[in-house]
Amino acid sequence: MTQTAMLKDKSLSTAQQEARRRSRMLMAKRIGGQAYLWLLLVVLYAPILLIFIFSFTQSKVFGNWTGFTFQLYENLFTGYDSTAQVRVDPNLYRAILYTVLIAVAAACIATLLGTLAAIGLYNMRSRARKSITFLNSIPMINPDILTGISLFLLFVFLNISRGFGTVLIAHVVFCTPYVVLSVMPRLMQMNPNTYEAALDLGATPAQALRKVLLPELRPGMVSGFILALTLSIDDFGVTFFTKGSNGLETLSTFIYADARKGGLTPELRPLFSLIFLTILVLLVIMNIRTNKHLNKSKK
Amino acid sequence: MKKFTEIASARHTWAWPYVLFLVLFVVLPLLLIFYYAFTTPGGDFTIQNFVKFFHTSEAVNTLIYSMAIAFITTVICLVLGYPAAYIMAMAEFKTPQVMALLFILPMWINFLLRTIATVELFHMFGLPLGEGALLFGMCYDYLPFMIYPIYNTLQKMDRSLIEAAQDLGANKTNVFTKVILPLSVPGIYSGIVMVFMPTVSTFAIAELLTHNKITLFGSLIQRSFGEGGIAMWNYGAALSLIMLIIIAATSFFDQERDHDAQKGGLL
Q1: Residue B23 contacts by C-beta under 8 Å, 6 or more apart in sequence?
Q2: In angstroms, what separates the C-alpha of B26 from chain A's closest C-alpha?
């Protein structure tokens, strides 16, 4: 960006001095602005970089460098620490498994429930729609701790023992509103008569749903699903209050319990380094693809 | 069976399962907070839980302190975040969305782990873990929530309005204070709410960042449900109700919040 500006600066050597001074000021401003953004980003990424760097050293204590090695990565994948001759905490793997299971299940249920709800809401009279939309916004506004405690009280009140099922319900509670909001704009954009037209042309409601509605709603459902997935994986507060005490942990609550005990399981460092790299690569690919798409549509 | 297809073809009924779900798992639990807050462990009506709160100066101070921390965090995030959002929205990057993505990317790493890494960073630079660490950690965790909504409103802003103001003779300061700033107010409101609400209700982060030196209101609530045992649940519910009132008051501040644009845009 700045390079092209500089080239322009040279080629315009015949231009008036005033114009040059202005362009130079603009450039200085732009560089200053960019520098500020990069400074913020450096601070924002410093802790993540730290996790990444210390995933390549074996030290049990986070922040202690004891030489470069891939040992922690090996431990993570084999589940066995060959230097200390002990197994890697099996609870870590259970936590990973439960995190993924709960996230996928919650995202699936939320997508189904939310999509149906969005279609229903779209076809409702405005007063009913308004009050349900308000109800739908409560889990989004409510902070984790209140969602968690209110559900905790519900399960206590109904005498339901807490565990996998209660965590799953809790995750569906805070994921579904976002699915509803991702699907809604697609409904607003589509021609409301196409569904009726399909019925008039002899399609059964199920066929009309599958062949007319769903293809239109799919992008909204996909982004709602991914959003639900990330919200579920990242959750700590709600899980903390609904998981009960019979040993169910997700990665968040596992890390919390670990940190309170004093030491962090070292294998968490390579785990999250890999997660971060995966997401980075996915985003880069997505970006390249959308850019290609944009270029194509421009042509 | 025919009856079922009749019901199913009236599409407004498709929302019924979700409505039932919302009543059972959102409305009823919130009512239970009220119920527990105003009862004794035996189930009798009482306002003792609130009396106890207002008579425990430590608890009241914790609430005030938490609100102050949340307020300061919000102000710092606004001061740091507005310029960043402004620069991002105004600069003609080749790929503007990449910059925005870079600010959101850290959120994909578990925030507890990031917080622990921040603590480690403080250790490495020999900085003490106290109020400073707490504020830094909070700002660090929630800055993207301030930048994003402001960036969104600035980006959607009609650029020709700026040109119009310039053509009509407004200087740079005037263009900013009379055109850009007023137009970005909805984004600022959303940002303030999105930072203030989670910081005022946070638990866990404060303990980790200060090694249990500082207790926030959220941790106080958490403790009355965790270590306190059944006897403390009603008191905890009363504290939760106070928190609920704060949250409700804050959300009125930002009624036309466009959730879709913000959270949906995070992807």
Answers
A1: A135
A2: 7
Interchain CB distance below 8 Å, A237 and B28: no
Residues of A in contact with B251 (CB under 8 A): 141
End-to-end CA distance of chain B: 41
CATH of domain A100-264: 1.10.3720.10
B211/chain A closest Cα distance in angstroms: 9
Distance from CA of B256 to the nearest CA of A (A): 12
Q: Do A149 and B33 touch (CB under 8 A)?
A: yes
Would you state the CATH architecture of domain B48-266?
Answer: Orthogonal Bundle (1.10)
The ipTM (two decimal places) reads: 0.86
Q: What is the pTM of this model?
A: 0.86
Question: Which residues does chain A have within 8 Å of residue B77's beta carbon, measured at their own beta carbons?
Answer: none
Amino acid, res. B17:
P
Domain boundaries along the sequence of chain A: 1-45, 100-264
Domain ranges across chain B: 48-266
Q: B197: how many CB neighbours lie within 10 A of its CB?
A: 23
Q: What is the pLDDT along chain A (299 residues), one digit of tens a residue?
A: 445 555 555 555 555 677 777 777 777 777 888 889 889 999 989 989 988 998 998 888 777 788 888 888 988 888 888 887 888 888 899 999 999 999 999 999 999 999 999 999 998 888 889 999 999 999 998 999 999 999 999 999 999 989 999 999 999 999 999 999 999 988 888 887 888 888 889 888 888 888 888 888 998 999 999 989 989 998 999 999 999 888 899 999 999 988 888 778 888 889 999 988 988 888 888 778 777 776 666 55
Which residues in chain A have Cβ-Cβ distances shorter than 8 Å to B29? 150-151, 153-154
